[in-house]
């Protein structure tokens, strides 16, 4: 089967908040040499016969990309072409090039009702409520209304 790949990206003048969010998170992961990140999408179309680039361009323009804010490229991918080294199959979590090498596995989705645990231990006394219902000793009292505000109607 012939495969046509359509890569869709926001035009350079269009703000990419998802890319900015990723770029902002990279320093927290220790990656400091990335200047910018742009996020797009890849669409693979498999034709039963010869790849029809004109039809793929028509699909991309009418359905896969918004030509007002996105650019796209269309290309034929050779049959049997291996995935790039280090690519991880999102479903199986296996590297398709080197399946025997352990890959990063995505965390499983939590079931509803699963209790969440704090990342750092919290002192039990700091979060425990007194048995008599009184405010804890370290509780901050509510702020008094400023002069001219509040409940006396003046």
Characterise the protein shown here.
- With 154 residues, this protein is of the alpha+beta class.
- It has a domain at 2-77: Phosphoribosylformylglycinamidine synthase subunit PurS (Mth169, Chain: A), CATH 3.30.1280.
- The chain has 3 helices and 3 strands.
- The protein has helices at 17-25, 53-64, 124-127; strands at residues 2-10, 40-47, 70-77.
- The protein has a 3-stranded antiparallel sheet, covered by helices on one side.
- The longest helix is centred in the middle third of the chain and has 12 residues, at 53-64.
- It is elongated and about 75 Å long.
- The relative contact order is 0.15.
- Residues 85-91 and 103-107 have low confidence and may be disordered.
Q: Gist?
A:
With 154 residues, this protein is an alpha+beta fold. Helices cover 16% and strands 16% of the residues.
User: How far apart, in Å, are the first and last alpha carbons?
Assistant: 80 Å
The helix tally amounts to 3
Enumerate the strands of the largest sheet in spatial order, edge to edge or round the barrel: 2-1-3
- Number of E-state strands: 3
Please tell me the overall pLDDT.
Answer: 74
Q: pLDDT below 50 for ≥5 consecutive residues: which ranges? A: 85-91, 103-107
Radius of gyration from the CA trace? Answer: 27 Å
Helical content (DSSP H or I, runs of 4+): 10-25%
Beta fraction: 15-25%
Main sheet properties: 3 strands, antiparallel
Order of helices and strands: EHEHEH
- Annotated CATH topology of the domain at 2-77: Mth169, Chain: A
Class of the domain at 2-77 in CATH?
A: Alpha Beta
């Amino acid at each position: 089967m012939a495969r046509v790949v359509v890569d869709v990206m926001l035009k350079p003048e269009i703000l990419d908040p998802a890319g900015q969010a990723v770029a902002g998170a990279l320093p927290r992961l220790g990656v400091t040499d990335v200047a910018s990140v742009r996020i797009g999408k890849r669409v693979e179309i498999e034709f039963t016969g010869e790849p029809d680039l004109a039809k793929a361009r028509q699909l991309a323009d009418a359905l896969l990309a918004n030509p007002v804010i996105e650019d796209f490229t269309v290309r034929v991918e050779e049959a049997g072409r291996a995935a790039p080294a280090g690519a991880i199959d999102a479903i199986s979590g296996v590297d398709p090039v080197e399946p025997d090498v352990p890959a990063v596995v995505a965390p499983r989705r939590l079931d509803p009702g699963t209790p969440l645990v704090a990342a750092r231990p919290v002192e039990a006394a700091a979060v425990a409520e007194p048995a008599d219902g009184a405010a804890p000793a370290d509780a901050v009292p509510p702020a008094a209304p400023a002069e001219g505000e509040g409940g006396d109607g003046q």
